[in-house]
Amino acid sequence: MAKRAKASGGRGNRPARANVARNGANDLALTVITERQAWFTPETLAAYLQVSDRQVRNWVSEGLLISYKIGSSRRFDPADVDAFVAQFRDEGKPER
Q: Which pTM value belongs to this model?
């Protein structure tokens, strides 16, 4: 049976790694490579936050959630989503 190559190019979700390269006799350069999370579409963001697509669109139209229009597609940076969600952190007393 033939082996299949991964659709992602074989990289998967590896943890961050560091590469050390020598630049001359005693000089070292350190490069840290971190994996970036894929950006959300309106549908994947709604599923992630467990809200409706309409709610995501409302947050965008109200200026509460940052989005990027790339061609005809709307995308959401995971860092912007994290900042948006952090606004709603409830650190008060638990409800009865």
A: 0.59
Contact 48, 40 (CB under 8 A): yes
* HSE-CB for 74 with a 13 A CA cutoff: 13
Q: Give the tens place of pLDDT for each residue, 23-64.
A: 555 566 676 767 777 999 999 999 999 999 999 999 999 999
How many helices and strands in the chain, by DSSP H and E? 3, 4
Within 13 Å of residue 24, how many CA atoms lie on the same side as its CB? 3
| Token couple for 60 | 């965008």
- Quick count: other Cβ atoms within 10 Å of Cβ 68? 11
The answer for 77, left when phi > 0, alpha when psi is -120 to 50, beta otherwise, is beta
Within a 10 A sphere around the Cβ of 46, how many other Cβ atoms?
A: 17
The pair of three-digit structure tokens given for residue 78, joined into one six-digit string: 């995971």
- Which residue's structure tokens are 């709604």? 46
Q: Across the chain, which distance is largest between two alpha carbons, in Å?
A: 67
